[in-house]
């Protein structure tokens, strides 16, 4: 560790200001140095600005800006004399929404660094990007000028919330090239039009901070004075306006919470509707409430089975996607018809369609008539049905109907199914298998 670096580290530890992140000491593990500093629970200003769900009112925005300027002014007047690495990433936000400047100094440590991450250089002043020798022009005054440029980028970032160079039609490396090698007097800078309803003072300050000649950039105290119109009516920083600010932030959070609850309720209702389509209502409600669904005996129900005549042959001459579209179109028609009768769709397996009446709600002796009427409507519907990919092929159904007793129950946990068991189910299936083509 060199003498200059050791001196700089001592200066950094000695810094004490409410707008500068306190450093308590360093851990030296060559070639790296780790700083032990105050933890800021709200992380960096960059992360806050990128959070689109967090609406920042003017009080937040002005407080952030003024906090950065107060911390920067202190550093420029301290023995250290500069920040040297100012960006929204190094502006940390504590629990009281106060901005603390971090990752400052250590210029001698950074002299030998080769930063390959172009995105981390988006806040760096053009004159520093152009240096071939990093030891060239590293005076405190020149670094203060560079800090003011970096603040101008952060100011635009805060006001636009579009990132340090939001809206630029170039990559990070292309932006850096334009900054290093400008064309004549055409100096590339962030787009001020991204700032909605800008205050004239903010626009003038951005332009002043972005001056190409470092000596023409205002000092921090002048920048603070230029931005004073933005703070009109405010007492000071966020701490001075904390109660009012927290009330507004609380209301903002309540709006976000209400929005999330509405989304959650919508998803829950969608899940419930899907569950009700898969299971009988009383079974679905029981499962939703964590209750066990007991098997139940029904002494008299009517069961219906049907399949498509020639389905195997048709499938062999069709693509899987054509088969899926065909079955979906057909069963959509069937499902719509079922809504007009007291029947329950049990399941579909391939081209087989199964329904029952008298379960899960008993309906006396009406179950046979309901199934028969439904079957007639299904037969009627297929006379006009056209198979999309085989429009000239007639559609024929084979049906089987049987009345008798069954036992019902829910089978499975991950994908529960409402099933019917008993000889009546077998008889209905056999009636369909051996039935005449219609």
Automatic annotation (TrEMBL):
Molecular-function annotations in GO: adenylate cyclase activity; ATP binding; guanylate cyclase activity; peptide receptor activity; protein kinase activity
Domain named Guanylate cyclase: residues: 302-432
Enzyme superclass (EC): lyase
A Pfam family annotated for this UniProt entry: Guanylate_cyc
Assigned GO CC terms: plasma membrane
Domain of life (superkingdom): Eukaryota
Location relative to the cell: Membrane
Record's keyword annotation contains Membrane: yes
Membrane topology classification: Single-pass membrane protein
Entry protein name: guanylate cyclase
Originating organism: Plectus sambesii
């Amino acid at each position: 560790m060199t003498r200059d670096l050791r001196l700089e580290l001592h200066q950094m530890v000695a810094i004490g200001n409410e707008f500068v992140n306190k450093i308590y000491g360093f851990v030296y593990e060559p070639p790296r140095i780790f700083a032990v500093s105050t933890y800021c629970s709200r992380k960096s200003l960059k992360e806050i600005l990128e959070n689109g769900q967090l609406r920042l009112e003017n009080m937040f925005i002005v407080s952030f800006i003024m906090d950065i300027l107060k911390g920067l002014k202190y550093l420029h007047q301290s023995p250290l004399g500069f920040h040297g690495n100012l960006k929204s990433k190094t502006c940390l936000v504590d629990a009281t929404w106060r901005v603390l400047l971090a990752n400052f100094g250590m210029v001698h440590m950074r002299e030998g660094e080769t930063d390959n991450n172009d995105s981390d250089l988006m806040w760096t002043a053009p004159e520093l990007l152009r240096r071939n020798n990093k030891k060239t022009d590293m005076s405190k005054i020149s670094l203060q000028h560079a800090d003011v440029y970096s603040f101008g980028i952060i100011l635009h970032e805060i006001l636009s919330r579009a990132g340090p160079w939001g809206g630029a039609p170039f990559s990070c490396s292309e932006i850096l090239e334009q900054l290093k090698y400008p064309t004549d007097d055409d100096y590339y800078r962030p787009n001020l039009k991204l700032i909605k309803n800008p205050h004239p003072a903010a626009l003038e300050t951005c332009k002043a901070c972005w001056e190409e000649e470092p000596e023409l950039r205002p000092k921090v105290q002048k920048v603070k004075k230029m931005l004073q119109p933005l703070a009109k009516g405010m007492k000071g920083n966020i701490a001075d306006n904390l109660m009012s600010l927290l009330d507004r932030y609380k209301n903002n959070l309540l709006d976000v919470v209400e929005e999330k609850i509405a989304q959650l309720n919508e998803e829950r209702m969608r899940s419930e509707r899907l569950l009700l389509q898969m299971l009988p209502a009383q079974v679905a409600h029981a499962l939703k409430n964590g209750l066990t669904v007991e098997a139940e005996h029904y002494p008299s129900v009517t069961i219906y089975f049907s399949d498509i005549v020639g389905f195997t042959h048709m499938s062999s001459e069709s693509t899987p996607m054509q088969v899926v579209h065909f079955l979906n179109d057909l069963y959509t028609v069937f499902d719509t018809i079922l809504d007009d009768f007291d029947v329950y769709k049990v399941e579909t397996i391939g081209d087989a369609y199964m329904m029952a009446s008298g379960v899960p709600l008993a309906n006396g002796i009406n179950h046979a008539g309901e199934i028969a009427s439904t079957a007639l409507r299904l037969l009627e519907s297929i006379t006009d049905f056209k198979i999309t990919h085989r429009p000239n092929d007639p559609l024929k159904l084979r049906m089987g109907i049987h009345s008798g007793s069954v036992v019902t129950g829910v089978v499975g946990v991950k994908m529960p199914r409402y099933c019917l068991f008993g000889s009546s189910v077998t008889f209905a299936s056999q009636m369909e298998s051996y039935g005449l083509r219609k």
